[in-house]
Structures are given as C-alpha cells and as structure tokens.
Amino acid sequence: EAVRGLAPTSIELREPRHAVGRLKEEKNRGTQGWVCIPLPYISGRHCVIMAEETSDQDTGDAAPRVVLKDESSNGVYVNNRKIGKGSQAVLENGCAVHLFLPK
C-alpha cells in the first residue's frame, strides 16, 4: 500500500518521448518528459515511452503508435508479459503497464 503514494497510476503523455525512472529530472537533461518514481526497485532509467508516427497500411494516413522500451534491471511488464531489457512493446489503448512484477 505504501507504493501507491509514490508511484503514479497513470502518466499523461504530453511530449513525444518520456522517460521513467528513479533519478531526479536534473540528472536526465535532454529528456523531453521525465517521470521520477523514487522506489529502490525502479532503475535509474527504467523505461522510455515514445510516440511514433506510422502510416495506415490501407489508407496511407498518419496513425500514431506508442512504443515502450524496457531499460530496467528488474523488468517492465505489459499485460503481465515481461518485455526484457533492450526490447520494445507497442502499447495499445487500455493495456496494463507494470514497472515491477505484477501480483
């Protein structure tokens, strides 16, 4: 229960690129959006969330896509599936992202 007060339950993406981690913002200059979660099992730079423009295969129209890159030591989970350090996952509307092993 103590974790609930320190870790946000949602992150509003206002920039095309956000980093999430334990380190304070001033140590991550150059990152457009930074979310600091001061918990010991969150890596200094735990993951990066990026908005990318892609084109719809049928219409050719621009279609935004949100990608999460795992940069953690302990893992990031999307819909209870571990992503793995250096790997990426496409985030869909309504998916669950956990910064540590979900219950």
TrEMBL record:
Residues 18-83 form the FHA domain. Pfam families: FHA. It comes from the Eukaryota. SUPFAM superfamilies: SMAD/FHA domain. This is FHA domain-containing protein. It comes from Rhizochromulina marina.
